[in-house]
Amino acid sequence: MVERQPGLTLLTHVILVFGIVVVAFPIYVTFVASTHTLDDVVRAPMPLLPGHRLLENYQAVLGHGLRSAGGAPVGRMLVNSLVMAAAIAAGKIAISLLSAFAIVYFRFPCRAAAFWLIFLTLMLPVEVRIVPTYKVIADLGLLNSYAGLTVPLIASATATFLFRQFFLTVPDELLEAARIDGAGPLRFFTAILVPVSRTSIAALFVILFIYGWNQYLWPLLITTDEAMYTIVVAIHRMVSVAEAQVEWHRVMATAMLAMLPPVVVVIVMQRWFVRGLVETEK
Amino acid sequence: MEKRAVFPHRVLPYVLLAPQIAVTLVFFVWPASQALYQSLLRQDAFGLSTRFVGLENFAGLFGDRDYLHAVTVTAIFSAAVTALALGSALVLAVMADRVVRGSRVYRTLLVWPYAVAPAVAGVLWLFLFNPTIGLVSFALRQVGYRWNHLLNGHEAMLLVVLAAAWKQVSYNFIFFLAGLAGVGRAVLEAAALDGAGPARRFVSIVFPLLSPTMFFLVVVNIVYAFFETFGIVHAVTGGGPARATEILVYKVFKDGFVGLDLGRSAAQSVILMAIVIGLTVVQFRYVERKVHY
């Protein structure tokens, strides 16, 4: 702050608190709704303080799911989401580390072509090639499988560029020293390059985990078997039943469960998260 | 920039690149080329015969009132989401940059909606505005306004805009804070000594220095509103009522999977690709130049 202005400082705090209330209000209402019985929730206005049904509601959705939406347990969907998010994050990081290593530390014909091919993926999000990509997955027999959920999403231009930028700043002396000690390229990669990249890897993992967890269109298309639903997709199916049957208290419990893992990751790893976000957009 | 020291292998780099290139070819390049190819074909109603029709699908789209309507809806939607998400994030970031006490707490509390999936964000807002049981629609009823986004297209649009902007505010907030941290304290102090108050300093110094961040965020927010809000529209309104919230991405999905009109859907995909390519080029040209003052 440049100068003291108590009035202005007060106004600043008021605006910030107002902003936080607006940001948090939908989540608070969701939480409250998830702790009441259905009767309490659907009687307008619903209560504004948490009720006593927290354990019952969460146990019910985790174990039995929602009757109106087919009754697949939400616990299973959480596992699916976790597998999908972790596999996408780890897969993107692994193949991007490898390709950035190839592009930075080797000279070979078609290097520029490979670089541009990877760059191309930035311009082709799933949303613009929905039908033909679906057809590829169907032809490969990957519908309703973890491979179908993850493999098509693990190409990553942003991660490759991020690692390329980082590798370019790694001193050449490290490579020369490794070569004098007799290390080959793979040894150099595993023993030196990956360990020095660990903060970039951590930052990227946070961003990519959230990206994977929040995927919607892709799992919506390729999962028809309830046992393969991710939790984010399942919520939509829970509210799109006939209006009279929406079990709002359980839908809201499911929504809380769907938000919890990525939000915890962001708050716990906030430093890496902000870093990853700012760096991937450079 | 290039490395001076490199490994002399001939085969290894191809092996290292193979996974990334394989995924790119199979799941990106091949489907995209299929979309291009199919956009030039037309199938008969039973899918028995296919013939080459050139640019007829595109011409058909631009003569189709529903498609032009979707273009208008997308333009209004993305302009509204971008304006709302950028405006409120800028105000909050300037405030959070100003406070000394509690700034970490404020930051943490404003950052986390980034982690909420668009579809989930949509369901939360849907619940608040549910015409019979929602808290906000209840409050509106108390002051005499009957909210029903299932019947009123404008209300449906407002609802998806609110949900989409709500989710994007924290992203913009993080980038504005980073941009504000780059504004030199010395410049601001000099201006204060010259008698410029906080408002004047913001207009004459802070805002111009933030313009590269602002420009970058405008592009990112448009991309977000175009492509990443599918989940919100799908979960909240399903494009309705009466197509009032049918954005382009939603229409591709609907025409391709529900209507099964492959040629039309592929032509729409090609147009969307052109939009993404255009936006990406704009973004990268900017990144290279880094508009500075």
Q: What does this 3D model show about the protein?
A:
The complex is a heterodimer of chains A (282) and B (293). Chain A is mainly alpha-helical and 282 residues long. Chain A folds into 2 domains: 6-69; 75-280, MetI-like fold (Orthogonal Bundle), CATH 1.10.3720.10. Helix content of chain A is 70%, strand content 0%. Chain A has helices spanning 6-33, 38-42, 54-64, 74-105, 111-120, 130-139, 146-150, 157-169, 172-180, 185-196, 198-213, 217-222, 231-239, 248-268, 270-280. Chain A is globular. The two termini of chain A are 28 Å apart. The model of chain A has no long low-confidence stretch (mean pLDDT 86). Chain B is mainly α and 293 residues long. Chain B has a single domain, classed as Orthogonal Bundle (MetI-like fold), CATH 1.10.3720. Chain B contains 12 helices and 2 strands, in the order H-E-E-H-H-H-H-H-H-H-H-H-H-H. Chain B has helices at residues 12-38, 56-62, 65-98, 103-111, 118-128, 135-142, 153-181, 185-193, 198-228, 230-236, 248-258, 262-289, and strands spanning 41-43, 50-52. Chain B has a two-stranded antiparallel ribbon with strand order 1-2. Chain B is globular. Chains A and B meet through helix 1, helix 4, helix 5, helix 6 and helix 9 of A and helix 1, helix 3, helix 4, helix 5 and helix 6 of B.
